[in-house]
Amino acid sequence: MAAADWGGKADHLAGERATAQFDVDGMKVAWAGSRHAVEVADRMACLVASDPVFRKDTRTMLSRKELFKDTLKKAAHAWKRTVELHLTEEEANLLRLYIDQPGYVDLHWVMFVPAIKGQGTEEQQKKWLTMAYKFQIIGTYAQTELGHGSNVQGLETTATFDPSTDEFIMHSPTLTSSKWWPGGLGKTSTHAVVYARLITEGKDYGIHGFIMQLRSLDDHSPLPGITIGDIGGKFGSGAYNSMDNGVMRLDHVRIPRDQMLMRLAQVTREGKYVHSDVPKQLLYGTMVYVRQTIVADASRALSRAVCIAVRYGAIRKQFGSKAGGPETQVLNYKTQQSRLFPFLASAYAFRFVGQWLKWLYTDVTQKLESKDFSTLPEAHACTAGLKSVTTSATADAIEECQKLCGGHGYLNSSGLPELFAVNLPACTYEGDNVVLLLQVARFLMKTVSQVASGKQPVGTTAYMGNIQHLMQCKSVVNTVEDWLNPAAIKEVFEARALRMAVNCAQNISKAPSQEEVSPSFPQI
Amino acid sequence: MAAADWGGKADHLAGERATAQFDVDGMKVAWAGSRHAVEVADRMACLVASDPVFRKDTRTMLSRKELFKDTLKKAAHAWKRTVELHLTEEEANLLRLYIDQPGYVDLHWVMFVPAIKGQGTEEQQKKWLTMAYKFQIIGTYAQTELGHGSNVQGLETTATFDPSTDEFIMHSPTLTSSKWWPGGLGKTSTHAVVYARLITEGKDYGIHGFIMQLRSLDDHSPLPGITIGDIGGKFGSGAYNSMDNGVMRLDHVRIPRDQMLMRLAQVTREGKYVHSDVPKQLLYGTMVYVRQTIVADASRALSRAVCIAVRYGAIRKQFGSKAGGPETQVLNYKTQQSRLFPFLASAYAFRFVGQWLKWLYTDVTQKLESKDFSTLPEAHACTAGLKSVTTSATADAIEECQKLCGGHGYLNSSGLPELFAVNLPACTYEGDNVVLLLQVARFLMKTVSQVASGKQPVGTTAYMGNIQHLMQCKSVVNTVEDWLNPAAIKEVFEARALRMAVNCAQNISKAPSQEEVSPSFPQI
Predict the structure, then answer these.
(1) Same-domain pairing of A324 and A395
(2) Could you say which enzyme class this protein belongs to (chains A, B) (predicted)?
(3) Nearest to residue A144, comparing CAs of B410, B398, B305?
(4) B411 touches A: beta carbon within 8 Å
(5) pLDDT tens, residue by residue, B227-277
(6) What are the backbone angles phi and psi of residue A222, rounded to the nearest 5°?
(7) What span, in angstroms and rounded, lies between the C-alpha atoms of B336 and B314?
(8) How far, in Å, are A310, A406, B206, B376 from residue A16 at the CA level?
(9) Pick from B374, B403, B431: which residue ends a domain?
(10) Residue A337 forms contact with B (CB below 8 Å)
(11) Which of A114, A254, A350, B5 could make a disulfide contact with A299, Cβ separation 3.0–4.6 Å?
(12) Which of A317, A334, A519 sits opposite B318 (nearest CB)?
């Protein structure tokens, strides 16, 4: 049997690629955002692909312990390369992205550092970020507890001020108050921003952030009064099993008063609780930032899954041979196309909406800094809605891509099982998608009522100001070609969205009690 | 801190259980099928739960190799217990079910043995099943190839008869003809039913089954000309990674002529291909059997996932506390109920339809044996449709149950990740769900056209005979209470199903070509 007969060398995709009817290079630039972005991305991708330490092909073969060690090795090597090559922040972020293995560094850069930036005083930022930027300390973000996720206001960990020693006593009063899930907590982190109920002068002032050292910088053992562990295996063969999500219980652990993050409020030496003149809305800037990165992650995951499924569809042939001829590429079946092509379109849509969200974050930040809070509720609803829609659609699409690759989609070697296992939890973390959609619904209901009383809606809801026209207009579409007119499509979406919102608002006004329908979520 | 404060001992479900408004014991019997079935199931469940060899709690912590060894150990121990306790076939099946770890024994009992039963002559059955029943040989079912899954008629492995030695030459002529996926093939099986194109006297007679010995019974090494391997990691932490799905290539391997399964057709000593008087429709009996077990598996998996999510919802409290009182059980939120309760209803529905499918299999088998094939197409469509609907709904529901348990649903300790990873592939194996639904659609279109020409439809499609009434009737429902009338509900479903089928048939008759819409699937 000649090697050629086994088909190992043939390029089965060249024919497909040759028939592209668009400017491939131009699309690359549009996708990346700029010619510069294409160049940097390619360079970082090559850096990962050419370095044996970053190899990924054995990842799903490793035991949990080996996988975790592999993650530590990669993180250390990435940091070494970042320093050696003097990578910019943009380059370093892309390097982490292409290494593509969840680990403690994600929490350090995406949660710990931004939390201190957003909630720490200038003095605190100088002290802690200096160490964090050099990786002299490794930080995580300890908010979620065993008993409380979505309901942040229900967290039970306490931070009780003791004026006799000028310290906070950090404590886990119940089993359910154990910190649970923080990535990097189980084994790696030396520090954390810990969220707890601030109690001073006998009064509970609600949830605040505190910087805590968790482990010795000498021998990495947990400090006295702190019990930490890994919470065990998670969904998927590799996926988040590379991350040491952890549990932590605190037994009256004392920290200096100046480790409370004090940008928005502080406790004085005497124990008085004092608000600063910095508005608390600033906190929402961080939330917009984190959700924006999640939308970007979703669009990236979806595009990878669709790429795998499209290529498989081009190579896989099944049924439809006539008189012994070749079978039909499954990509040519309408049943395959009708399932796959909407995902392909969504991958582009999510990419571009992700780029827009980056702009929104910059815009919100600038407005917050000049104390303009007028667009915040709309921006918050926007990021909540887009986080929910893109992560749910992406998880569903990756699962469907597995099915579209037949049995082969369930093999780890297809890449799809890990992509799915890494991205499904995004439907839950950083705001459960169902809870977030209810928040969006609540915002829309409020906007409808404001429009009714003559207030002009802003941002993505500005179209609702056109209520007179939209409630009664008829679509200008008469022929198939009319659907190619973007203005016509936009008007149809606006009219449909507004009519559904108005209709829903009318139904709710008739309902006996809103409390029965959904929990009372915190609102901006 | 007193132990009681940590809440470790409280029975949080007792209150919920006390409010059940139905006869729990009666429901147990209805679920199991009989009082006897409850008793046997309980006994086998206890046998597994009380035996340390069958422990499951460490399963997702094991490396692939350890997990595979653990599976071998459990299978051997189960066999030992089956022999020691003189378990009946019913009891032994339940024992395997409660051990709940995919392994080579599943293929041996569910595919290898039934294939020989269905396609082997009496002589062949006597020879091979005697050994199989004693586990002197371990069998698998080698049908799927790297290049062909759904399109069984496109399999490329050849079985060429050589009259000079009275043997078949089994061969893999291409890379894509490699056998790919058979469970138990990678490491364990000593024998297989291998499907290949039968070629004799220069003519290709299509796909037939052959019994092949794969490995030495002395040292378990693959026999000459046979290359076997494991196809690698699969979706999930544990899940199907306990199974040695395999790849096999055959290089002109010779087997005696009498290892062709000859119940339906045979090759004579001279190489003549001769049909027996046994009708080929008998093969479909096996298909009905296998799909019936898949529906039963789906209903079991769904009920387990729903059980976990319902209990979680009863224990988990979040939001809604008033003036510092306890929070609301998430099970009491309508947003949780509207997602969860339909799965609870489906779990019961799938259980009862699974019991009905068992009856259908018995009925089909009896009819086939008396050469009555009249109900076969309807029974085939029924099992294809129910396999597809129940496995898709179950996989989606388990995934949703993960989300309904918040972050905790992604922890292996919740049980849901493995349940999901084991059951999602059921959407693809033994007939891709989309392909199967297209077969059902084709059957329905044929039935509509037969009804139009006056032929009386049978079985589950008998209602379509009532076309005159159903196409124009109006629902008798006027009040909410009317929906409690089963006859009213049934008529609504019948009218809706028939009208959709007729409408679809009319649309298809207007379409330019059916070939463009979907592949030409094999038909009964």
Answers:
(1) yes
(2) oxidoreductase
(3) B410
(4) yes
(5) 999 999 999 989 999 999 999 999 999 999 999 999 999 999 999 999 998
(6) -60, 145
(7) 11
(8) 10, 21, 32, 42
(9) B431
(10) no
(11) A350
(12) A519
